[in-house]
Design brief:
This protein has helices spanning about 5-25, 45-50, 330-335, 365-380, 385-430, 435-445, 455-475, 515-530, 535-555, 565-605, 610-615; strands at about 40-45, 60, 65-70, 75-80, 90, 95-100, 105-115, 120-125, 140, 155-160, 160-170, 180-190, 195-205, 215-220, 240-245, 250-255, 260, 270, 275-280, 290-295, 295-300, 300-305, 305-310, 315-330, 500-505, 510. By secondary structure, it is an alpha+beta fold. Helix 1 packs across helix 9 (about 535-555) and helix 5 (about 385-430) crosses helix 6.
Length: about 625
């Protein structure tokens, strides 16, 4: 490589490295933090009397337990406290193992029975990042900034899929007067359904409305959803806040150390990862205030990803119903909730309940992704290995594109033949761009050359690469799709042959083989392509950068890309090498035939005097 090529590669590397460190500074978190609210503390009435200290306006004290009326509203009857210690209760719905705690009546664990987390060698845990101050579906009386209710509840398990947690709370107002409220949280599940129902039941025992600066209570999703991922190494995984308003879905990727209110209308919302999500869907969306999404580092240097929904202050009695979807971000699992007759809840049938709007959006190339996905799934019915399916699909695509690739190569030869004439036109009309374009276009027409024709294979290849990326980075069906178990066990993630005990800048701690093979195949393919199309001058320098610099840049950009994408790209390059060899032989034959015919053509076109001189 010459000095200019080396400089091009070095500068490209500096740009890539610089972008990793400068972009977070330029486009980092500019979101304002949520305004602090009055703190709500939870303790026992006995402790409050013993300490005899003045609490804040919105302080919550626990008193006695309560019972439930047949109308399913809670009455004022107080009973003896029989739940002095924390207890865990488990419900298995068939698709999930749910572990509750009597502390707050919250969820401690929510594991999906049919989905594995290879990092933990356990089931996928949707209720991750649990602490004493933050649990799944915990309630805080008042706004987001207030502490969650952390007292021991009693519970009644009326059937294998229904559990009711009960507690009586005493709230002291600004004047120091106590108001008694009874609180219930009833969870109802259906067998083999990812959706469940949560009812929040609050009854005022003295007729006073529950109002903390316009908010009755706040309910939250899990502090984090699994499976876990290394945020510094896996650039293709993220957490999103999702909000749906009945027409379109807003998806906000969460960056670390962010807490912000979502001040637009929504019918439902939640937190989603690449393959799993938690959605909170109120039966009556009008009760919701502005939700808050948060991603603060609160435990083990691992940021949470949580949505918190404030319930507007209401009357003295509150009976709210929420439908919760805790499960895969998968079209097959979600679409049954679009129609009421497809699920056990009778949920759906209205545009505002269309949960498939939470799926990863494919954009304008969704039609191509659907075709490629159908082809791969059809092949997989015959061949059980997804990697082999990708290779076969790539071969089919190359065969289909061969006529265009051949035309592109022949077009490049034609362009070389026209270069002297093009340069002459450029020199002659250097000061008249319009005339230069006209003469160049005229030359192309006379020679039968179409500059756009050679771009079609490149455009098609580019579109397929984007579609393949979305296919293996978004579609749940390909999660865990394997090629070679100990090398490429999951085509939606990067391959790995060795794990270092330290991180390499830009690359992480994994040694990946596919990106290295890809770079080698790309350079080889470029060399063979240019062997029949030599260039000179500035074009030669440009082609050298394309040959060495671009694969080098792509090496870093796609180092941790889904291995399914790299497998397609690598197979395409290998096939391109063989295809180019065939095309080069065809072009060499044409050039040889043209060379043999040239002398005869020259002889016929010689002027008479020249012919006479030749005879002498």
């Amino acid at each position: 490589m010459d000095k200019n090529t080396i400089w091009a590669i070095v500068l490209s590397t500096l740009v890539i490295v610089g972008s990793y460190f400068l972009l977070p500074l330029v486009f980092g978190n500019k979101n304002a933090k949520a305004a602090p609210q009055s703190t709500v503390e939870v303790s026992s009435a006995e402790t409050e009397e013993k300490n005899n200290v003045q609490k804040t306006q919105d302080e919550v004290l626990t008193d006695t337990l309560f019972t439930e009326e047949e109308s399913q509203l809670l009455n004022e009857e107080e009973t003896t406290d029989v739940a002095a210690t924390e207890e865990n209760v488990t419900i298995n719905t068939g698709v999930a193992q749910v572990v509750f705690t009597t502390k707050g009546g919250d969820i401690l664990s929510y594991k999906l029975n049919d989905h594995n987390d290879k990092e933990t060698n356990d089931l996928v845990q949707l209720s991750d990042g649990i602490t004493d101050a933050n649990r799944t579906l915990a309630l805080s009386m008042g706004g987001v900034a207030n502490n969650i209710v952390n007292e021991i509840f009693t519970y009644e398990k009326t059937d294998p899929y229904t559990i009711l947690f009960k507690k009586n709370l005493i709230i002291k107002d600004a004047s120091g007067q106590k108001h008694s409220y009874t609180l219930g949280k009833r969870y109802t599940f259906k067998q083999n359904e990812y959706m469940f129902k949560l009812e929040v039941l609050i009854h005022s025992n003295d007729g006073s409305a529950l109002d903390f600066n316009g908010v009755a209570y706040t309910i939250r999703t899990s502090p984090q959803i699994g499976p876990r991922f290394n945020q510094k190494q896996n650039r293709y995984e993220n957490r999103q806040f999702i909000a749906y308003n009945g027409k379109k879905t807003k998806k906000i990727i969460l960056s670390n150390n962010i807490e912000k209110k979502y001040d637009k209308d929504l019918l439902w919302g939640g937190i989603a990862g690449k393959y799993f999500m938690e959605l909170v869907i109120p039966a009556d969306a009008s009760i919701l205030g502005s939700p808050t999404y948060s991603a603060k580092v609160v435990k083990d240097d691992y940021a949470n990803a949580q949505a918190m929904f404030e319930r507007k202050a209401g009357s003295q009695d509150i009976q709210d119903t929420y439908y919760m979807y805790f499960g895969p971000r998968d079209e097959k699992a979600l679409k049954i909730y679009n129609a009421a007759d497809k699920n056990a809840w009778g949920f759906g049938g209205r545009p505002e309940t269309k949960l498939t709007m939470a799926l990863q959006s494919s954009g304008w190339l969704s039609w191509l992704e659907a075709i490629l996905k159908w082809c791969l799934e059809t092949l997989h019915k015959v061949i059980s290995n997804w990697g082999i399916c990708i290779i076969i699909l790539t071969i089919v695509l190359k065969i289909i594109m061969f006529p265009l690739s051949k035309k592109q190569s022949l077009s490049s030869i034609k362009m070389q033949e026209l270069q002297p004439k093009i340069q002459a036109i450029q020199k002659k009309y250097a000061n008249d761009q319009q005339k230069m374009q006209q003469e160049t276009s005229k030359l192309y027409q006379e020679a039968g050359y179409n500059p756009a024709a050679g771009c079609l294979p490149m455009i098609f290849q580019f579109l397929v690469i984007i579609a393949m990326y979305n296919l293996f980075n978004n579609y749940f069906e390909f999660r865990g799709a394997s090629f070679i178990p100990k090398w490429i066990p999951d085509l939606t993630e990067g391959d790995s042959v060795y794990t270092f005990k330290f991180n390499i800048p830009l690359l992480g701690n994994q040694l990946r083989l596919l990106p290295i093979i890809y770079v080698a195949s790309q350079i080889l393919s470029s060399k063979i392509s240019q062997s029949m199309n030599p260039t000179g001058g500035q074009n030669e320098k440009t082609m050298k950068f394309m040959m060495y610099g671009m694969p080098f840049m792509f090496f870093f950009i796609f180092y941790s890309a889904p291995s399914g994408l790299l497998l397609y790209w690598l197979t395409s390059n290998v096939l391109q090498v063989g295809q180019q060899i065939i095309i080069n032989k065809m072009m060499a034959s044409k050039k040889a035939a043209a060379g043999n015919a040239q002398p005869e053509k020259v002889q016929k076109t010689l002027p008479p005097k020249a012919k006479g001189k030749q005879k002498k």
